[in-house]
Amino acid sequence: MNATSPAPEGSLAPTPGRIVLLTTSHRVAPGLLSWPAWQALRDADRVLCADGTHPQLPYLSEAGIAVDEASPTAEELVAACADGHTVAIVATGEGEPTLTDGLARLAGSGRVQMPDLELLPASYDLPGARLLDLVQVMDRIRAECPWSSQQTHKGLAKYGIEEAYELVEAIEEGDRDELREELGDVLLQVVFHARIAEEDPEAPFSIDDVAAGIITKLIHRHPHVFGDETASTPEEVKAHWLRTKAEEKQRTSITEGIPMGQPGLALAAKLASRVRTAGLEVTLPLPKGGDGIGYELLALAVRAEADGVDPEAALRAAGRAYRDAIREVESGSAA
Description:
By secondary structure, the protein is an alpha/beta fold. Helices cover 54% and strands 7% of the residues.
């Protein structure tokens, strides 16, 4: 920002000086600053910070950078930049809204020559950094909320199922805002369960252990990405996945690992998928089966899976159409 007053004829205009506002992320370890930030700090004539407990201060001191604990007004800061001086401000966690607002008003007045103002991010959030905030929030809720502090894995199980179904509904409805919210609700369940697991007296684990486990699994099951194998088609990728999974689990039956408590159509489709992938010949009707409606639904689910159709999704779509038809009849009756 620059607001200048004309210099007297024949005189040199004074050098306006420079203000550098350094912002840092609390999600990045103190001291891990960008190279431009270190350069700005070393080149500054004065370095100021309003917070004497700022986590960066010990590291700046160790680097030989003197920092004055001060909270100047906009006018005082402009005066400190006179004669071409540079003042660096190490911003607090809340930023410096009072100072920047004051500088903006001062610049708008046109009464003084303003120094150059540079906003310099000294550290940046990495992708996924807000997950650290989520973990901290969950820690506090677990400790201080009367309801959350009493929850157990079993008590929360039903919410995991509900949130998963709501996520599927958001996907099928194509609602992007709802999808983002439901993904957050599912993520909450993961973080909540991991926080509870930390308190187990016999086999505790943390969210970091959960993340480490899935990272190891993903790397191992993607040798075409992290190893020497190659895969150019989705089918080859799936073959890698199934082979490495079989090696990990050492299962004696393709039915192992299939949760029998899942919805019936999904269960039937999953079994059919395992049969087809393994190249087994399991004929329908079943040898010990019957003619009941359950076997008819099973046959439909197997047929759907063979045709690449998710029978649960297909039935939900039909259910939504049925719901709409019901509402039409209801509205007609009301009229």
